Inverse folding.
């Protein structure tokens, strides 16, 4: 992004020739972790933990699963940062906007 | 037209090959033709929306008037807004973006040409679907803002047409937004870094992101409204725990970014016109760019300023009052930069310049009334009165429509190879300026005097009749100016193409390096860009005293190089976009009348999409 | 400006970022879908516990059953990336196998949803019964439609590969469909927790 009007054109940023792709074994490992996290979530929901503690623990597991799928299966961990920023704009933006909306309803008081 | 290679694939359904002729308009994937399609359609809707406005102002010209009854008035004012916003300003902006963005960034077309065609046809069919409501029991009559629970219980099919019509046009806009955003990000000519792009392209990029992120929100709301109306869900039903105010939040979460979607294209147009007719670079380019981006972001944080009187409470009202005041800042930055562009410039007051300056002036007035709205206590008096109608028309008509007219005068030679008549243009401008101010300035007084908006009549005892009359005279004056514009266009287009030069305005940006109109492939050779205002710097250098000196053989007014586009392969035309788009009204009528039609519509869309995906690509 | 990434092979021309336009477009589309599903989820969360009549979630939900559905969808994401790996290795047979596997798992998920919804319906919960029905069926219905569209895309990929239309670079379209598919999976990850696992407060007066 040169601000100098007379600078020569800059090439696109160099990207590694060989892209890293997880192997089958690594993907299966991620898959097993996802299944394990889901089992934990289900166990939590049947357990006697309740209230804010339950919600916090459940949401933590959910967030980890979300990030693992996005990072590994959707390859964002290994891809150009632009893709991550683009997706984050939508995901974080959506989360922020809707949390504000819910706050305006005093939803936490329900 | 120079020869362009097109597909010679054989198939059961052969891909169309013609790029000229009447039928080629239905299968074109050329961004320039699609731009013209958007422009012509949206202008037609401008006239329809204008007709609706004249009916409103005729009805309000005297108190207790009986030209329209309340029910008819409700339909007219609802459709006036829907038409002007969704069927005129947005698609007209799409016309400008589609035509100009590839040319301005040195590309041959947009990133996804067939999707581009799809966007247009879906838009057109959605627009026709919405307007078919007039003949099918009545148009939407719940206001463009469709507040629940009224919009839910409103009898008849009007508001169902509203929900479905906007869902369809929303799909068109979302697809188009993704297309244009990727075009700007990824299709720039070598050397065209982001900060060497024209401001018009930057504003376009911000608009596409605003569309991509705000449309899904109203999509959800429209489905909720549709389901409540058609299938008895409880989303906005207070008797079953629903919250009508959820509609307001969802609507304005979209609705506020929407107003920036409406104005930023005009800001881009103004930013291109002023430098050319001041013969000076845009003052503070980076500030104009960053303020546009800031407006985009902050625009998502102000929506509840449309809801100050809805009972959100002092904390919410205060927070949004502050954010709304803050958003005036980047807008103000632009105004100062435009003024700085004009200051000390070698000013030429051709029609485009008049409209651009008029747009800035009118927008400032509208912006000032907007600032008064941001203050919660004063908005309590203003809201739902004509003061708001004044504000919105000063910014949208004064800002966006004046800007659009400026853009039409400016780029007419590029698109059509002819200049609109300058004398008529100037006359049209002044009549429009006078008519516009006559129509809308009194509305400030009407509003502060307590005249309520969205009501089919008013009592004489308000004592505001004379201002209503002035306003109605203004409306018809506007109509006169539009008529002058149409006559100008007809007379211009009837003539043969005759431009002395392909650069009639001595302009600054890449689109003016091509012939008027450009060939299908845009550039014989993809340009290499070395600076902002690339074309200007090819034509002019500065001597030791800082004066402009013409660079020899740097202009495009001379004969074009021998390259004539041989060997440039362009995407082939396609009929699948039109086919797919036909499924949407079928779906819509199905929701209203019959599950069979829903099925038919779904089949058409799915088969169409499969055909679209499997279509053989260009041979070479 | 030559783009040298695997992604960019699929652009017919050089791109400004060196990245594929299609991939950028897909990510922008998925970003915008966050706002769509966010809106639907917000309505569900807002109205949780606000239904004025039953049935209520605790009356109809079968967490065990839905957990199996969740495992199925998660597994389908795994088969999806395995098909991509196979495509990268140009092992068409394996690629088709895993694509079909993904589609089958997706169909199982949708089938499971259909069965679940039918059961709820017979227990007195329809989309118009109450707020719970409205928000639940709308949210999961939209998700289910997205899954169905994904299944169609997977099947089209299989057909295309049999026709030899993918031989240029099979990994790219598989990756693109994969991105969409995984997104649909992560939406479910969120829905499963927020809708099924986080308990709904009982409305006042309900034992």
């Amino acid at each position: 992004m040169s601000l100098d009007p007379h600078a020569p054109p800059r090439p696109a940023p160099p990207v590694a020739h060989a892209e890293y792709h997880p192997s089958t074994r690594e993907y299966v490992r991620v898959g097993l972790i996802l299944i394990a996290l889901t089992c934990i979530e289900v166990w939590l929901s049947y357990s006697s933990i309740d209230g804010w503690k339950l919600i916090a623990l459940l949401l933590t597991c959910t967030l980890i699963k979300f990030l693992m799928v996005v990072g590994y299966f959707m390859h964002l961990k290994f891809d150009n940062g632009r893709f991550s920023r683009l997706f984050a704009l939508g995901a974080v933006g959506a989360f922020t906007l809707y949390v504000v909306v819910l706050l305006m309803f005093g939803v936490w008081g329900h | 037209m120079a020869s362009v290679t097109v597909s010679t694939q054989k198939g059961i359904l052969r891909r169309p090959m013609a790029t000229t002729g009447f039928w080629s308009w239905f299968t074109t994937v050329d961004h320039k033709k699609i731009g013209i399609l958007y422009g012509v359609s949206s202008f037609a809707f401008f006239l329809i929306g204008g007709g609706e406005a004249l009916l409103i102002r005729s009805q309000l010209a005297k108190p207790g008037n009986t030209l329209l009854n309340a029910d008819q008035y409700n339909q007219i004012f609802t459709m006036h807004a829907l038409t002007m916003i969704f069927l005129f300003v947005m698609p007209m902006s799409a016309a400008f973006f589609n035509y100009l963005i590839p040319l301005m960034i040195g590309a041959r077309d947009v990133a996804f040409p067939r999707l581009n065609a799809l966007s247009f046809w879906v838009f057109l069919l959605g627009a026709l679907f919405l307007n078919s409501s007039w003949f099918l029991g009545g148009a939407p009559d719940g206001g463009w803002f469709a507040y629940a629970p009224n919009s839910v219980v409103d009898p008849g099919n009007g508001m169902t047409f509203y929900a479905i019509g906007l869902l369809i046009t929303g799909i068109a806009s979302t697809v188009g937004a993704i297309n244009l955003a990727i075009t700007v990000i990824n299709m720039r000519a070598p050397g065209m870094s982001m900060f060497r792009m024209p401001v018009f392209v930057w504003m376009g990029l911000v608009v596409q992101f605003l569309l991509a992120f705000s449309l899904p929100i109203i999509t959800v709301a429209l489905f909720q409204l549709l389901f409540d109306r058609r299938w008895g869900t409880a989303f906005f039903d207070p008797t079953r725990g629903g919250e009508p105010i959820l509609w307001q939040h969802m609507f304005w979460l979209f609705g506020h970014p929407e107003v920036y979607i409406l104005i930023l294209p005009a800001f881009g147009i103004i930013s291109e016109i002023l430098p050319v007719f001041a013969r000076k670079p845009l003052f503070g380019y980076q500030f104009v760019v960053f303020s546009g981006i800031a407006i985009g972001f902050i625009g998502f944080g102000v929506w509840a300023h449309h809801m100050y009187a809805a009972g959100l409470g002092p904390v919410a009202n205060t927070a949004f009052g502050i954010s709304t005041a803050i958003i005036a800042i980047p807008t103000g930055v632009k105004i100062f930069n435009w003024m700085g562009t004009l200051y000390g410039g070698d000013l030429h007051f051709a029609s485009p310049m008049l409209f651009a300056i008029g747009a800035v002036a009118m927008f400032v007035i509208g912006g000032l009334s907007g600032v008064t709205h941001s203050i919660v206590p004063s908005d309590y008096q203003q809201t739902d009165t004509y003061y708001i109608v004044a504000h919105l028309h000063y910014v949208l008509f004064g800002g966006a429509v004046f800007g659009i007219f400026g853009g039409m005068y400016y780029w007419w030679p590029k698109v059509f190879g002819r200049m609109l008549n300058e004398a008529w243009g100037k006359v049209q401008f002044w009549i429009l300026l006078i008519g516009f101010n006559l129509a809308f300035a009194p509305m400030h007084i009407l509003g502060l005097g307590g005249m309520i908006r969205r009501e089919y009549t008013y009592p004489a005892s308000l004592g505001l009749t004379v201002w209503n009359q002035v306003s109605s005279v203004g409306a018809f004056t506007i109509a006169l100016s539009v008529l002058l514009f149409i006559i100008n266009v007809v007379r211009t287009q009837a003539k043969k193409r005759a431009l002395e030069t392909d650069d009639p305005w001595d302009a600054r940006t890449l689109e003016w390096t091509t012939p008027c109109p450009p060939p299908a492939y845009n550039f014989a050779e993809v340009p290499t860009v070395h600076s902002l205002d690339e074309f200007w710097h090819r034509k002019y250098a500065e001597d030791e005293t800082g004066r402009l000196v013409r660079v020899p053989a740097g202009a495009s007014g001379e004969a074009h190089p021998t390259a004539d586009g041989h060997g440039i392969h362009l995407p082939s035309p396609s009929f699948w976009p039109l086919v797919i788009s036909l499924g949407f009204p079928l779906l819509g009528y199905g929701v209203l009348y019959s599950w069979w039609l829903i099925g038919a519509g779904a089949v058409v869309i799915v088969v169409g999409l499969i055909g679209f995906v499997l279509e053989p690509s260009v041979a070479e | 400006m030559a783009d040298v990434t695997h992604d960019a092979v699929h652009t017919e021309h050089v791109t400004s970022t060196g990245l594929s336009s299609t991939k950028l477009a897909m990510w922008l589309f998925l970003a915008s879908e966050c706002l769509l599903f966010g809106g639907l989820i917000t309505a569900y969360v807002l109205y949780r516990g606000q239904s004025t009549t039953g049935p209520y979630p605790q009356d109809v939900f079968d967490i065990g059953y839905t957990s199996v559905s969740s495992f199925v969808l998660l597994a389908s994401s795994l088969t999806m990336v395995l098909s991509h790996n196979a495509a990268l290795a140009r092992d068409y047979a394996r690629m088709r196998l895993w694509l079909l596997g993904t589609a089958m798992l997706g169909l199982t998920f949708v089938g499971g949803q259909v069965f679940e919804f039918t059961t709820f319906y017979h227990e007195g919960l329809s989309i118009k019964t109450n707020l719970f029905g409205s928000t639940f069926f709308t949210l999961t219905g939209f998700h289910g439609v997205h899954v169905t569209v994904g299944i169609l895309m997977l099947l089209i990929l299989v057909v295309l590969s049999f026709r030899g239309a993918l031989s240029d670079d099979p990994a790219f379209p598989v990756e693109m469909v994969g991105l969409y598919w995984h997104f649909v999976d992560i939406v479910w990850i969120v829905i499963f927790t927020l809708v099924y696992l986080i308990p709904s407060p009982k409305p006042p007066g309900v034992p």
About this structure: Helices of chain C lie at 21-47, 57-60, 63-88, 92-122, 131-162, 171-197. Chain C touches chain A through 63 residues (CB under 8 Å). Confidence is low (pLDDT under 50) at residues 1-12 of chain C.
